[in-house]
Amino acid sequence: MQNKFISFEGCDGSGKTTQVKKLVEYLHSLKQETIITREPGGCKEAEDIRHMLVTGDPEKWHSKTELLLMNASRHEHVKRTIVPALTDKKWVLCDRFYDSSLVYQGIAGSLDFTEAEYICKFASDNLEPDITILIDISAEVGLQRSNRATNKENRFEKKGIDYHNKVRNGYLQLAKTYSHRFITINGEQSQEDVFKDLLQALKDKDIV
């Protein structure tokens, strides 16, 4: 079985992190060496930048500043964590990658999409996930879930429902644009049913 780079995307509260953990458990059951990582973050240098991005006032950064900070973090993450793991033939499961920046800063943040895409690909050395799993939920459901959680990293949740509707619509747009690598799963099911659909979709593509 060939190792893959799989990213997980979705609105805040979509349950990505839970599904990442379920998939790594499944891969471990198949004796596949796997790492879990996340963005922003994934290594010490990138985690230092993460703190600036996910805490504090929702309007403290302009969208372009956010995009540049996200991609500074991403470059360190790619160089120090993702590429070394892939080189060692490990599976990499990443809780968000550059599609988050294209959606949150590019589409919802009203930046020029082509410029945002160029910056993201430049920062990631053109590394693209083999598969991107979009856990799709409505903005309302996502924010309800996030607000119930004891989460201090809630700067983006504070941006409001209109912003998060743009995020959700942006993801659906990306799923069509990059249909060769996107798998879209209904995230408003139970956690077990979400994972069942996710795993079947990966099997249908001969990924696992």
A few lines on this structure:
The protein has 208 residues and is an alpha/beta fold. 54% of the residues lie in helices and 12% in strands.
Description:
The chain has eight helices and five strands. 54% of the residues lie in helices and 12% in strands. The chain has helices spanning 16-29, 44-54, 63-87, 98-107, 113-123, 139-148, 161-177, 191-204, and strands at 5-9, 34-38, 91-95, 131-136, 182-186. The longest helix is centred in the middle third of the chain and has 25 residues, at 63-87. It starts with a strand and ends with a helix.
Give the topology, please.
Blueprint: E1 5-9, H1 16-29, E2 34-38, H2 44-54, H3 63-87, E3 91-95, H4 98-107, H5 113-123, E4 131-136, H6 139-148, H7 161-177, E5 182-186, H8 191-204
Parallel strand pairs: 1-3, 1-4, 2-3, 4-5
- Which of globular, elongated, flat, extended, rod-shaped describes the shape? globular
Largest sheet: 5 strands, parallel
Distance from N terminus to C terminus (CA atoms, Å) equals: 7 Å
The helix count comes to 8
Strand content: 5-15%
